[in-house]
Amino acid sequence: MTDPLPDPRPLVIGGALRDATSGETFETLEPFSGAVIARVQVASAADVDAAVAAAAEGQRAWAALSGAARGAVLARAADLIRARRDEIARLESLDGGKPIQETPDADVDSGADCLAYFAALAPTIGGESQDLGGLGGGPWFYTRREPLGVVGGIGAWNYPFQIACWKTAPALAAGNAMIFKPAEQTPLSAYILAEVLAEAGVPPGVFNIVQGDARVGRMLTAHPGIAKISFTGEVNTGKAVMADSAATLKTLTLELGGKSPLLVFEDADLDDAVSAAILANFYTQGQICTNGTRVFVHRDVLDAFLSRLLPRAEAIRLGNPLDPETQMGPLISPDHHASVLAHIDRAVADGATLLTGGGPPTDPALAGKPFVRPTVFLAHDDALPLCREEIFGPVMTVLPFAAEDEALARANALPVGLAGGVMTRDLTRAHRVAARLEAGVVWINTYNVTPIEMPFGGVKQSGLGRENGRAALEHVTRIKSVYVEPGPVEAPY
Ligand code: NAP
């Protein structure tokens, strides 16, 4: 690959930069300034065909290596990412508007950790065997855990580098090839992943990038040469991906949205509870899938909770994401900004009590930019759209409750179930509530911590499959059972 990348940015197919044949391009903008960072070429159906052919060829060579050899390559890639930490973090902040306080660890380190983790697991991927005839040398079977082949990855814009790594690392560790389509808003950091993987020794064709909008995503989901789609995005898009994948019966991992609950009990350490609620709502401008946007607070501690929360929410520093002092950057785009403000206006019209925030900041330096002040509502009606719909912005809703069963019933009432949290000093209650929350991930006395070792994913309409942890390997491999008959074949005819 070349440095700097050509403009408009090409595709990455078969280990080389390749101009798209569509003739179409799109622009990626800096959310803070609105300036064009780069133009990017849109893949055509023929380009996707070429990517699939290159991936199939690359995958054969890659899968022929031992797990240990693949792991060694991926471990080198992890090191190369760490060596480019500042550069990748800066690009993520520039392209995604995320504060530079966040991107070095939440994005870059998380991506490197993921590659290192699956590098270490690569030599352990294998099957099992079992005797069926006792010790007498009778029949037995063994299983082979095989790669799926070519995996299509479709990413969201909120954690572009991290998502690319979380999808690619387990897939490659298991011997698959990846064709990755970043979200249009944040198409750039995937090129760095392509560079480090190539430099580390991943063969050509094992990691490919196709760029473009939903049309290109649909080309991946429809393609008969792709065995699996690993998708991150909205619930409704996930349903479309699932429907489109049915024609070729692809395996799916769907990492979708949520409206997760955080339960604050009367015995919780309230400073910690406020910290968790802040982490659950305002990190990355609130644009996090697992966010605990419904904060159920026991009515006995409601006033104390709010009196600690509001000053801390109001003290959050908004600004240029590249300024090290900035704690909250702009939302990803003017369209998304308008959508978040519309949700807020609707909630006010519906009668929810706006406690703080609710609109753009007054700082003239931020005027006209897609900022939303950290916003806190108090609501008493779970049926409001505010309490049911994913807003994907810095909007927290505090909902008082009186009893544990009531809080759990309300927490579990939605069709989504990505995550949840419980703040309490009562050990028994903490685990009881964790067991009863309908969620793929539950945090006890913290929120939004996602170590690579821990499986990650949703239940109900928040998704299928798991990323991270050993569990991820089950979703990028298939089992072949091999039955072995050492004796004569007994046929009835
Ligand atoms: P989105 O609109 O659903 O888009 C996600 C990706 O799918 C983008 O690359 C998009 O392309 C592509 N796409 C759109 N329509 C498609 C189709 N019909 N077939 C195939 N691909 C299609 O989601 P987003 O706005 O980027 O991301 C925000 C959402 O992601 C939120 O709901 C959030 O909760 C969720 N999310 C979930 C997780 C998780 O792990 N559970 C993590 C992060 C985000 P374009 O680039 O053209 O839009």
Q: What this model shows, in words?
A:
With 493 residues, the chain is of the alpha/beta class. It folds into two domains: 11-257 and 462-480, Aldehyde Dehydrogenase, Chain A, domain 1; 261-444, Aldehyde Dehydrogenase, Chain A, domain 2 (3-Layer(aba) Sandwich), CATH 3.40.309.10. 35% of the residues lie in helices and 20% in strands. The chain contains 14 helices and 22 strands. The chain has helices at residues 45-63, 67-83, 85-96, 103-121, 160-173, 189-200, 214-222, 235-245, 270-279, 302-314, 334-349, 404-411, 427-436, 471-474; strands at 11-13, 16-18, 25-29, 36-41, 129-131, 140-147, 150-154, 177-181, 207-209, 228-232, 251-255, 261-264, 294-298, 353-356, 375-378, 395-401, 416-417, 419-423, 441-444, 459-460, 463-464, 477-484. The strands form six sheets. A seven-stranded mixed sheet has the order 14-15-16-13-12-18-19, with helices on both faces. A six-stranded mixed sheet has the order 9-8-7-10-11-21, with helices on both faces. β18 (419-423), α13 (427-436) and β19 (441-444) form a beta-alpha-beta unit. α2 packs across α6 (189-200). The radius of gyration is 24 Å and the shape is globular. The N and C termini lie far apart (64 Å). The model has no long low-confidence stretch (mean pLDDT 97). The structure holds NADP nicotinamide-adenine-dinucleotide phosphate (NAP). NADP nicotinamide-adenine-dinucleotide phosphate is lined by residues 154-159, 181, 183-184, 213-214, 217-218, 221, 232-234, 237, 240-241, 255-257, 289, 390, 392, 418, 458, 463. Its EC number is 1.2.1.8. Pfam families: Aldedh. InterPro entries: Ald_DH/histidinol_DH, Ald_DH_C, Ald_DH_CS_CYS, Ald_DH_CS_GLU, Ald_DH_N, Aldehyde_DH_dom.
